[in-house]
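Quiz preparation item.
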């Protein structure tokens, strides 16, 4: 499914995600290295660049590395509004767009996203009138296309697309590890997009780099499947082949990653049945590493007097088991963005009474508090 565009050329199928740019020893983004990566991407025919106000320094970096060095019509630029992070009112939430426009220096934004719908975050966008705001930006020509990124289940996605059919595309977390994951629901979310006729932009095709360096048991399966293929190429090819996908973003942070992803993109052939069987075995092996059977039914949360987002915290523990502490902390930040943390648990036990999987939730929350709070 092609991504809508007002230019003569469709955005490139591989997108340059600007969340994890290379940095200098003092923590500043290494602009010269970013320029080299941008040059390699553009030379290969890449045109789609994805930044966000929430990616510290990224918008200003891409102004210097791309906007000030290439004709505006030669690339497409996406950025995002994450009002739920720090905006205290609608005025602050909407002012984020003006800051993005100034930081990028792009004149207009090709693809503007309401960033990270789901859980309590969607309610913030609703409260601040952000859906009407992005429509207004498009009508004024400040934005060419509007959409949103989604971190929640398929049922919630269906509700959002039903309420906002004017949204032109959806950005989803899609990778072989999450395709059948009951928490992430990548396949089901993709099916919802197909139902509503919305093209998909893929985020996290290699799960923040983890699938480029998977657990040893998974690595062995992939090597047996193809000794010459890199782990990252397996993940990128899966995302490129996923139904309804228009663009696959990769958050590349060095030239080596850029070169490898370009090679995978340019030489891409569809996965064979045998290769899909390999990835299915890899996915099941990842699942076997988990000891937390949470299915995100949310029954526990309906009973919690402290309004703790238990399902997201359970998912954070799962991500920590699979991908390490940093990955778990990152997801925990999303799950507790409303201020209700695992350490707020008063051990009343109502959640455990409601849990159909009979998870010892109190103990899991104590574990999460020790790890993440």
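Solution:
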């Amino acid at each position: 499914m092609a991504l809508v565009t007002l230019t003569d050329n469709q955005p490139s199928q591989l997108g340059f995600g600007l969340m994890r740019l290379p940095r200098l020893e003092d923590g500043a983004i290494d602009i010269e290295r970013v320029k080299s990566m941008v040059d390699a991407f553009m030379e290969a025919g890449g045109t789609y660049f994805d930044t966000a106000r929430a990616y510290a320094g990224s918008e200003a970096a891409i102004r210097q590395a791309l906007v000030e060095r290439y004709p505006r019509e030669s690339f497409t630029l996406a950025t995002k509004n994450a009002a739920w992070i720090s905006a205290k009112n609608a005025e602050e939430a909407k002012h984020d767009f003006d800051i993005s426009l100034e930081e990028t220096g792009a004149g207009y934004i090709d693809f503007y996203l309401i960033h990270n719908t789901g859980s309590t975050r969607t309610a913030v966008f609703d409260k601040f009138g952000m859906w009407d705001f992005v429509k207004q930006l498009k009508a004024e020509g400040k934005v060419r296309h509007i959409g949103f990124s989604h971190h929640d289940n398929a049922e919630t996605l269906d509700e959002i697309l039903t309420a906002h059919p004017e949204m032109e595309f959806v950005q989803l977390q899609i990778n072989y590890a999450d395709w059948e994951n009951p928490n992430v629901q990548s396949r089901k979310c993709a099916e919802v997009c197909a139902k509503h006729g919305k093209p998909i932009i893929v985020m996290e095709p290699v799960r923040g780099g983890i699938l480029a360096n998977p657990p040893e048991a998974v690595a062995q399966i992939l090597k047996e499947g193809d000794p010459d293929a890199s782990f990252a190429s397996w993940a990128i090819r899966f995302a490129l082949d996923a139904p309804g996908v228009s663009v696959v973003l990769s958050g590349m942070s060095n030239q080596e990653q850029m070169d490898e992803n370009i090679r995978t993109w340019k030489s891409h052939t569809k996965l064979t049945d045998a290769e899909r069987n390999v990835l299915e075995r890899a996915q099941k092996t990842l699942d076997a590493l988990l000891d937390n059977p949470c299915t995100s039914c949310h029954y526990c949360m309906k009973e919690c007097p402290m309004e703790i987002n238990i399902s997201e915290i359970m998912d954070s523990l799962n991500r920590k088991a699979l991908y390490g502490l940093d990955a778990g902390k990152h997801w925990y930040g999303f799950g507790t963005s409303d201020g209700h943390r695992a350490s707020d648990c008063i051990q009343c036990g109502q959640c455990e009474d409601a849990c159909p999987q009979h998870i010892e939730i109190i103990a899991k929350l104590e574990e999460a508090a020790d790890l993440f709070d």
